[in-house]
Amino acid sequence: MSVPDYMQCAEDHQTVLVVVQPVGIVPEDQFFKIYKRIASVSQVNIRDSQRILIRYRHHYLPENNEWGDFQTHRKVVGLISITTCATSKEWPQTAERFHGQKEVYSSTLYDSRLLVFGLSGEITEQQRTDVAFYPSFEECSDVEKRVEDFVESIYIVLESKRLDRATDKSGDKIPLLCVPFEKKDFVGLDTDSRHYKKRCQGRMRKHVGDLCLQAGMLQDALVHYHMAVELLRGVNDFLWLGAALEGLCSASVIFHYPGGTAGKMMGRKQSISQPLDAGKRHRAGALTTNGISADTSTEIGRAKNCLSPEDIIEKYKEAISYYGKYKNAGVIELEACVKAVRVLAIQKRAREASDFLQNAVYINLGQLSEEEKIQRYSILSELYELIGFHRKSAFFKRVAAMQCVAPTIPEPGWRACYKLLLETLPGYSLSLDPKDFSKGTHRGWAAVQMRLLHELVYASRRMGNPALSVRHLSFLLQTMLDFLSDQEKKEVTQSLENYTSKCPGGMEIITLPDGLKLPPVPFTKLPIVRSVKLLNLPVSLRPHKVKGLLGQNISNASPFIYSPIIMHNRGEERCKKIDFQWVQGDVCEVQLMVYNPMPYELRVENMGLLTSGVEFESLPAALSLPAESGLYPVTLVGVPRTAGNITVNGYHTSVFGVTSDCLLDGLPSVKTSGCLVEVIPALPRLQLQTSLPRSAYTPHPMSKEELSSSVSVQLFNGETQQLTITLENIGSEDIETLELTSKIVSTKEKVFGEFLSWELDEALSHLPLKPGQSVTLTVNIKVKLDFSGQENLLQDLNDDGISVTGLPISSPLRQVLKPRAETKPVGSESSKPPPCHTLEAVLNFKYSGGAGKVEGYYRELSLGVHVDVEPSVFFTRVSTLPATSTRHCHLLLDIFNPTEHELTVRAKNNQDLVLHASECQRMAIQVDKFDFESLPQPDQESIRFSNPKQLEEERQHAQGCQINSKLGICWKASVEGVLNQLVLEHLQLAPLQWDVLVNKKPCDCDVIADCKVGDAVSLEVKLTNRSKNSVGPLALNVVPYQDYQNGVQNYDLEDGVTFIGSNTFYIDTVKPNESTVCEGALLFLYTGDFYLSIKFQDDSAGRELPLAWFTLPSVHIRALDTPPQAGA
């Protein structure tokens, strides 16, 4: 026997073997359909007191049948043939085939049946017990009943054989039962010897024990096995002694474990207690003391006959040791090891079971085919799995997988190899779900796991399934990244890129033919993300809720002051929802802190956001991370297209050709401050431009983020400047409302009058402002600070006409009241410039429109205004002169000009007073006296709701306005002195006038001269001397260059421009009001834009002329292939 039955178990010893085979051509699906119905009859009760168990096989080697005497459960005792027969003409041939099939097992066959499908007519009316006719495979309702009748007939034969063997008289000669390889060894033996007779008796007792076990007489079988063991042990018949011990073990296992040892409950394995009762009564044919007959009721009790669970294993060990003495009994030994392992698995004695399996590994079965080797290693793997040795099981399963693709196989079975490799994964603590590797520490041996994953990749590639290779290689890179060396990382990623170039990796679930689903493998480690933060919109784009509408969206509040359930729910909501809003249609940002764990640059393509809740347009980004970079900020952007609550679920990437969807729920190590944000309906967007230059100044309490822009201007005290603001709608919604407010910030100075003023009616008349339209608004900036030089003025007005002079003011700006001195000492205290003051304000534009306005939202746009206020005039002394009337007086003001410019001061009904720089003069102004008490008083309502300080400020403001209207002092600065000189120098033409002509045409920096490549270009430089002195001699140097408009200028043009003659012009002395001309020529060798820089060199010694006199224009020449067609 060369082919072991690895599925055998101890309880199979009590079954009878029936072979079910097709005769002729039978459709495979129909055959197995009938086979399953036949196999369902696995147990048949006989006369309600006895039962028989059947084991069916559809394929059984005849050579294994030759071992039927050694162990009767190996003997084919029944044959059921299935055939199809369409016509009666085919019937004789079919019957002949059935007869030939019976001949194969004729030596052991008890009975047989032929099931014929498809035949009708007279033949089917024949009454035959061994043949059943059915019209079709569907019309065969009594198949199971015929099989039960067939099994009963087998039982009758079995019982008769048992009785025949058990009732042999002592005088009859007992035949010697042999296994196939023993027959030649017993030729010529003395059959009359005592030793031979005992051998025959022992073997027969063992055989009868087998028959009793098959007949359901467990107690009788135990007695026979015990006596056979004693007989065979006495004659050293080790092979049959091992069989008797194994039979004893099988009967004991059946008694102790009625559920079976096959690893699963089988329908036929019902309780054994019922048939055991049959063994207690006397039966004909019981054993006697002189040979084969005795009354079993007087034998040793059932409990003593049955082995204990511990003794079962010891007897198995003994039996296997006896089998091991015979080379030809390797299959028997291997099957016994398998049976013992199944028993030990039920007893949970895994270590002893492993010893049996280790012995089974080294049993030599001769030359096995590759298929038999695969089956052997697979069964060993399953048995190791049964006893809990998962890693050992995986080892043999992997050996079986490698055997499927052994070099000796002409057509390697890569699909079978791949399937077996998948089955090894649990044994190596390996799962194909990447989520299992994100929890806690790594389980299993990483080196073995990587080897196995590499084999899966190779097997799937040889299967012709590149998508499967990409999935396994992605899994290897994702889960084993920490265990890969730098070189291995490089090799794996190169292989992955090669695979994905033919079959890109994605996030779809791959379903294998056997139904196994491979989950997607997102690259959460390429790159590794440490934190995700949703960013608020820029300050100028953030939505604000109208205060009166804040309560509209709030759900019904609880009537209770405190409710723990509500607080708990709100706490969860607070943990998730962010306290700012995004706006529909506006670009929103999410910042990720990532780093690259790879030892080389990592290119991440198509990186974007994964969201839910609203329609969201993700704008993917591509980035390149340096090798082993630290934390690196990456901003992902997108545009929500609808309003509602949006949840950022994660991000997607494309790395090495594999597209990954990385969800934050599966990344517990990622820090986030919340991923849920509200998206409000669309709002318009406003952009402003100003007439004043932008500034980098930021008002102190505010940040740069809070201002959309800022302007800066420098004004004299009392001066007014207009600021023109252009407001443009750059969004997609109409601007329906617009409000403007201002606020002075961070100033310690008291401002008189309105610092910023405007008229908004004209701008509001253009509303609603459509997208792309703009409106202009003018804001007046007027600065009025204290003109007293930060000192208190003495105002002492007397009605009795006595002259009262004011006290002097101790100010460093105080000057002696006399005409301005021609020279002032440099660095004196009086020459120090007065300090400048700074005024800062913020213009706040509040606007809204579209669907956002309906929901009560608006936006704010802030413009910072920074004004540096320089002092203009100071009133350093105030006094009065006696007048002829008590209703009038002359007010004397000492006015000081601290500026560097000339000022003209004008008062009401008075002549202009001209003040030079740093000059102080007195001005007398005749004014009418008035009664301050006659000014309008605030009403009682205002007094009641105002504090005294505020009332005093209002009173002083009213008095100041009255004084200003009486005096009407204003000033005007003249452009003289230093300012005059600077302006004069810039506006006046220089005394030396230069003219440059290209091809007889004047050329300046704004004029482009065209020429043809290869033609000579004439260049003339003309100098006209308008000064009073002679100029020269001079040397002019012409240098060509090209300007790339990016800050780079190329002067290396030796191959592009050639001078005809010298590039240096010499000019002799030029007398006043005369001119001179220098001429030269150039040749351009290729097309392009060229510039000529003309610089001068002064050959005269000690030149004292200003540099600005010698500034020549830059010449721009464009060289073309063909000359421009005039008038074409």
From TrEMBL:
It holds the Pfam family TRAPPC9-Trs120. GO terms for cellular component: trans-Golgi network. This is Trafficking protein particle complex 9. Residues 355-498 form the Trs120/TRAPPC9 TPR region domain. InterPro entries: Ig_TRAPPC9_Trs120_1st, Ig_TRAPPC9_Trs120_3rd, Ig_TRAPPC9_Trs120_4th, TPR_TRAPPC9_Trs120, Trs120_TRAPPC9, Trs120_TRAPPC9_N. The lineage of its organism: Eukaryota, Metazoa, Chordata, Craniata, Vertebrata. The keyword Manganese does not apply. Its main location: Golgi. Belongs to the NIBP family. Residues 185-258 form the Trs120/TRAPPC9 N-terminal domain. It comes from Astatotilapia calliptera. It is found in: Golgi apparatus.
